[in-house]
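S.,

Sequence below, as promised.
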Amino acid sequence: MEEHPELKKAKKICWRLLARRDRTEQELAGKLKNKGFDGGIIAEAIDYFRELWYLNDRTFASNQARRLNRKIASFLLEKGLSEDIAAEAIIAARREWSEGQALASLIRKKTTSGNIRDDLKGRQRLVRYLMGKGFPPGLIYETITRAEEEDGHDDDSK
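The prediction came back faster than expected:
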């Protein structure tokens, strides 16, 4: 059975993109969507590369986390710290600063100028920014909602 020409074209684009660097399923699907492929072709192409293990979001996330840890360790070593001290600092930072705390801190920092509840476009920009930083969408929405509720309580107490 001959492969659909559009699927063949989509796979060729995926091969080229994956040859440059690892990608997430969402990244690859977005690239194909921007090229004008329909959802069925995109899903087939994603499935094809997932089955070949060229596309695996968990592996991508692990690789990125290891890369960032190496980057942090390298930065600390360049500052003249020993490997032991750098490793201790990385472990301690993970223990004392949870993902939720880091996210809440970033949201407070980015929303000091006003109420995010009243600014839909600002809220959308904030969500895209936080997703770009690697935070999971569910945690982002939960933390923003909590921040909005806290912001609302502040108004009531004035």
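The CA atoms of residues 62 and 68 lie 10 Å apart.

Coffee later?
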